[in-house]
Amino acid sequence: MNASEKHMQQAAATLNDPRWTAVVARASEADGTFYYSVNTTGVYCRPSCAARLARPENVRFHATCEAAEQAGFRPCKRCRPDQPSRLEHYAAKVTDACRIIEESDNVPSLEQLAARAGVSTYHFHRMFKQITGLTPREYAMTQREKRVRKQLGSGSTVTEAIFDAGYNSNSRFYEKSNHVLGMTPTNYRAGGANTAIRFAIGECSLGSILVAQSDLGICAILMGDDPAELARDLQDRFPRAKLIGGDAGFEQLVARVVGFVEAPGIGLDLPLDVRGTAFQQRVWQALRDIPPGRTASYTDIANRIGAPGSVRAVAQACGANALAVAIPCHRVVRNDGGLSGYRWGVERKRALLDTEANALPEKGAHA
Q1: Out of 87, 109, 199, 333, which residue is the most buried by the measure of CB atoms under 10 Å away?
Q2: How far is the C-alpha of 93 from the C-alpha of 269, rounded, in Å?
Q3: What are the strands, taking DSSP E only, across 139-228?
Q4: Hey, CA dihedral for 56, 62, 68, 72, is it positive or negative?
Q5: Residue 305, H or E segment
Q6: Distance between CA atoms of 283 and 276, rounded to whole angstroms?
Q7: Is the pLDDT of residue 166 over 70?
Q8: What is the reported pTM?
Q9: Which residues are catalytic?
Q10: Radius of gyration (Cα) for the chain, nearest Å?
Q11: Widest Cα–Cα separation across the chain
Q12: Are the beta carbons of 284 and 327 closer than 8 angstroms?
C-alpha cells in the first residue's frame, strides 16, 4: 500500500468515526469523553478546540490525555486539554448557585447570583442554563415544587407547606397546583384521596400494558410482564386515590393505546396528563417531536432543548417518564446508535424501534 492509499484509508476511518462529527461541530459537551491528536502539529486537543480544523487523514483519537501523551503528542496551548475545561470551571460556579437557591428561604436575585459567581448577569444566566438546562428562575420554581411536595407528605397543613416552600400567597400556588401536583394540595396531602383514577390492564405484543386516566387525561402507560406488579406501581403513586377498574368504555380506550403501540404511525390523539419538572417537560416535548421510525441521541435532545451540558439530566428525565410510547423515550439511543437502558426493558425498546422502522415507506416509494 503506497502513501496515498494509506492517507485515503486513514481519512475514511476518521470520517466514519462518530467522534469526528463532534470535532467538526466543536462540541463542548464532548469535552472529557475523548481527545484527538494531529500528526502534522504534534499536539492533542479537546473536541471543542477552536483551532483550524485538521485534515481527517492527520487525525487520531485517544480516550485520555495520558494515552495521547504516551503516543508522543503534547497538549494544545489553545484549548489546554490537560487542564480543567471551561465547562468544568463553570459547573463549579453553577453548583454553588444551585446550593444557594436550594438553601435560601427567599430566592436570590439574578444579580446576586451573578455577583457571587464573579461574572455578568448575562453570562451567568447563559452558563446556568447551559449546564442545568433551566434558567435560574425555573430552577428555583422546581425547588419550590419539590419543597411543597415534601412538606405536604410530611404532614404539614396545606397553608404551612405553601408558605414554607417559598410561595408568597396561597392563590399563586393554587393557580398552578394541578400542574405541580396533578391534583389539589389537600388531595395530594391525603395521598391522592378524592382523586379518581380509572385504569385497565390489557395485553399487547410487548406483554402486559396498564393505561390509567385522571380527570386531566392519560396519566400512566406502564408495560411489564406481571399485571399485578403494574397495578401495584399505579397504587404506589396514589396510595389513597380512588382507583376505578375500567368499564367497557374505558377498555376501548385501552384498545386504542394498544393499537398505537402495535402501529405507532396511526398516532395517539388523546389528552395526556403529563406531570414533571420544568426541565422534564422540555425533554418530554422534544421526545414527542421525534418522528416514528427515527431516533436521536441523548446529546441531540440536550442540544434541541438548549442545554448541551445536560446530557445526564436528559437521560434521567427519560427514565422518569411514566407514559410509555406516548412520550417516546424508546427513540433515544446512545451517540453510537446503540441501545441503552429503558425503563420497560431493552428488548421492548428494540421491538418498538423495529416496529416503527418496518412501518416506514421504502425509499423511493411514492406517498
Answers
A1: 199
A2: 44
A3: 196-204, 207-213, 218-224
A4: negative
A5: none
A6: 10
A7: no
A8: 0.53
A9: 45, 329
A10: 25
A11: 80
A12: yes
